[in-house]
Amino acid sequence: MDVRPPLIGMTLDELQGVAARGGMPRFVGKQLADWLYAKGVSEFDEMINISRKNREWLAANYVVGREAPVASRKSVDGTVKYLFQVAPGRYIESVYIPDKDRATLCVSSQAGCKMNCYFCATGKQGFKGNLTAAQIINQILSIPPAPEPGHQPMAPLTNVVFMGMGEPLDNMKALLPVIEILTAPWGLAWSPKRITVSTVGKLPELKDLLDKTQVHVAVSVHTADPVERESMMPAQKAFPISSVMKLLSSYDFSHQRRLSLEYIMWRGVNDDVAHAEQLVRLIGGMECRVNLIRFHAIEGVDLRPASEDRMLMFRNLLNQKGITATIRASRGEDIMAACGMLAGKKNN
Predict the structure, then answer these.
(1) Which terminus of the chain is more solvent-facing, meaning fewer CB atoms within 10 Å of its CB: N or C?
(2) Angstrom distance (rounded) from CA 57 to CA 62
(3) φ/ψ (deg, to 5) at 82
(4) How far is CA 167 from the centre of its chain?
């Protein structure tokens, strides 16, 4: 088993430290960052402005760390689900979602999840471990893969959403370096507007994310009723949605940074006028967007999706109250890639 650590997932400071340990000038750290992130190489021999001696030292002590997905499945709607191996017998999934001039990657941050939300396939499998920064950024660097001969290349990524397997804020040690790599001029140099981090509302990590980054935030609400929410989302007990909203209200979401509230709709549970009005009260005058999401059935969960009529009624009521609400298009359901369906199973 190869125990050499990967270079991908390292920040500029860390790469400069690697260069120093190899007796190289610190500027070699900047060259490494350029090869790893801007140019996306997978072999040290491709780093042609670094001397052969230094490349040999790097290869003896490190690996680049790029790992191709071990499997993929394509939906009828063009969505592609990729399976990555992160440990022996342990897998995670990423979802590539093309849409006109956009291509979004739904990224996983953990294998499994501790949050145990009743309606989520990832939560049903329990917590298997945090992903490293290398394992997270690898999903982004390795998708879309190079096209097979005779095939059209897939559109390059325009957006990343941390909405795959796991609770991103439960893995801040890896999340923050990955966001730095994505947005820093020495990394991929993305605008923070291209990145959205989803959370159940884990405090105080949410404050940390808001203070240290400018990425968009999506909070999983699903019901504004605290008792009902706790029955569906055990995290409500530790992180009440009222406390989460109070924290969010102290930040400005009226300009470039956007706040989204995620609301999965279940028939006869949270899809009536009373629930819509309760959500309006929870939001108050806060600047945000509500994404209404059709529930995707998973094994062992006795919930059904709300009807199209109920979802339209709910959306219209929110719009009438001055709250921007949209019904999110469902993508990849036929390959178990839609919201709440990722389970990291090799044959799924």
Answers:
(1) N
(2) 8
(3) -115, 140
(4) 9
Q: Which two tokens stand for residue 323?
A: 């709250």
Amino acid 66 reads R
Peptide bond into 204 cis (omega under 30): yes
Displacement of CA 214 from its chain's centroid (Å): 15
130: exposed, middle or buried (Cβ count in 10 Å: 0-12, 13-18, 19+): buried
Q: For residue 106, what is the enclosing H or E element?
A: strand 102-106
Tell me which of 113, 117, 288, 339 is the catalytic residue: 339
Query: Is 339 a residue of the active site?
Result: yes
pTM over 0.70: yes
Q: How many residues appear in the chain?
A: 348
Block residue for tokens 């009902």: 228
DSSP states of 220-267: E-S-S-HHHHHHH-THHHHS-HHHHHHHHTTS--SSSS-EEEEEEEBT
**Cα separation values, 231 from 73, 227, 252, Å:** 33, 6, 31
Of the candidates 67, 93, 167, 262, the residue annotated as catalytic is 93
Structure tokens at 7: 């270079």
Structure tokens at 149: 């001969």
pLDDT digits 0-9 by tens, 308-346: 999 999 999 999 999 999 999 888 777 766 676 666 666
For the question of residue 288 being annotated catalytic, the response is no
- pLDDT, tens digit, for every residue of 102-158? 999 999 999 999 999 999 888 888 899 999 999 999 999 999 777 767 777 888 999
Quote the tokens at residue 147. Answer: 């096209």
**Whole-number Cα distances in Å, 2 to 60, 63, 124, 242:** 11, 9, 32, 47
CA-to-CA separations, 296 to 48, 49, 128, 257, 299, in angstroms, rounded: 49, 50, 23, 29, 10
Q: Are 235 and 194 in contact (CB under 8 A)?
A: no
